[in-house]
Write a structure and sequence with these properties.
The chain has 361 residues and is of the alpha/beta class. It has helices spanning 2-13, 92-101, 120-128, 141-147, 178-182, 185-191, 195-213, 243-250, 270-278, 295-301, 306-311, 333-346; strands at 27-30, 38-42, 48-53, 60-66, 78-81, 87-89, 107-110, 131-132, 151-154, 167-169, 224-231, 234-238, 254-255, 265-268, 282-287, 314-319, 356-357. It folds into 3 domains: 2-78, no CATH class; 87-209, Rossmann fold (3-Layer(aba) Sandwich); 217-357, Nitrogenase molybdenum iron protein domain (Rossmann fold, 3-Layer(aba) Sandwich).
Length: 361
């Protein structure tokens, strides 16, 4: 049933003109187990198509094929990949998905190298001379043209079509399950020519995650948890149907925000935050601080945050300056799951230390 639903989503947004074969002729080859943003099909010419879409809205964004397109006319972008494409990434997450699934041998450029945390991906970038493509509007056009990559992985927010770059939208951040995000390593590996490597790597990650999720919870308690961050006085919390909410649920808790948002994060005023905090057992913040984030830092942002501390039983912090939350941990969702369970049920820092209690005076 789920595979049929994916096929329907793909075909509603991507169809041939009246002079070509009907879109219903596209046969489904394979659908992911957790991800909602990609699936494989076979067009009327017998060519394998990777269909990419928005996991939340179902809007089809792109078709990807190996070699020239051989089907009928399309009304969506189509990227035809060369046999062994050099790849450029727009985010650190994409590089980690490549590294975990198929490796980084043909990774030649990235416009967010400065955001890579220490680890094997950053070491590879330094050793291999991966080109820094950061520039005005997000890209250094001259360096990109010099590289002439066969594949550009980026957010749908980038519109590179006017330059003719082979842009493929990656929407892993909109997936509704942590394993759905990690499963994007499979289509990325397919685009690089080795989907089997990606599938095997993902299977190992899936098994580890499921093993942690299946562990019994002491006492059967289901604490209510809300996760979020604050910037410029506005709080942003992941909506109900997000991978963050699923993390909390798989860790044996209840997610405290029932609202949804098409872009995954719900903006909250301080009054709303206080209302939610009063009903939650734990508030878990995601922050970025080069040193350590303390109560003093929270109050420096806004003294009224003291009311949040008074309303919340426990506040925990994931400092992305110390934990690679947007990079390596995307392909290790079991580590965050373990640490969430430890904080939520035992009140202790987990084995991977991704969440720490907010330091109070």
């Amino acid at each position: 049933m789920w595979g049929v639903a994916l096929l329907s989503l793909g075909l509603l947004g991507c169809h041939s003109s009246a002079s070509t074969s009907s879109r219903t002729a596209w046969a489904e080859l394979d659908a992911p187990h957790y991800a909602l943003g990609h699936s494989w099909h076979l067009n009327e010419a017998g060519q394998v198509i990777l269909v990419l879409l928005n996991p939340r809205s179902g809007e089809v964004l792109c078709a990807v094929v190996r070699g020239p397109w051989r089907g009928g006319a399309l009304d969506i972008p189509c990227v035809a990949l060369p046999a062994e494409p050099d790849v450029v990434t727009s985010g650190t997450t994409h590089a980690h998905l490549l590294h975990a699934g198929v490796g980084l041998d043909r990774w030649v450029g990235c416009n967010s190298l400065n955001f890579l945390a220490d680890g094997p991906v950053l070491s590879h970038a330094k050793e291999r001379g991966v080109v820094d493509l950061a520039g005005d509007g997000g890209w250094n056009v001259e360096r990109m043209e010099a590289l002439a990559p066969g594949l550009v992985l980026g957010s749908p927010a980038y519109d590179l079509s006017t330059r003719g770059w082979p842009m493929v939208p990656v929407t892993e951040y909109l997936e509704a399950h942590p394993l759905g995000r990690a499963e994007w390593m499979v289509p990325l590996a397919w685009m690089m020519g080795d989907s089997l490597a990606g599938a095997r790597a993902f299977a190992a990650i899936r098994d580890r995650y499921q093993s942690v999720a299946a562990e019994s919870v002491e006492g059967g308690r289901e604490p209510t948890v809300l996760m979020g961050s604050v910037a410029d006085g506005v709080w942003h919390a992941p909506g109900q149907k997000t991978f963050v909410a699923r993390w909390v649920e798989d860790a044996g808790g209840q997610y405290g925000l029932t609202q949804e948002d098409q872009n995954s994060n719900v903006a909250l005023g301080l009054e709303q935050v206080l209302d939610h905090a009063a009903q939650c057992d734990l508030w878990m913040m995601v922050v970025h601080d080069p040193d350590s984030f303390t109560v003093a830092d929270l109050l420096a942002q806004d003294p009224k945050h003291q009311a949040l501390l008074d309303a919340t039983d426990e506040v925990w912090v994931c400092n992305t300056a110390q934990q690679d939350y947007f990079g390596a941990l995307v392909v290790q969702p079991d580590l965050i799951l373990e640490d969430l369970r430890s904080a939520m049920h035992l009140g202790r820092v987990g084995p991977h230390r991704t969440f720490q209690p907010l330091s109070r005076p």
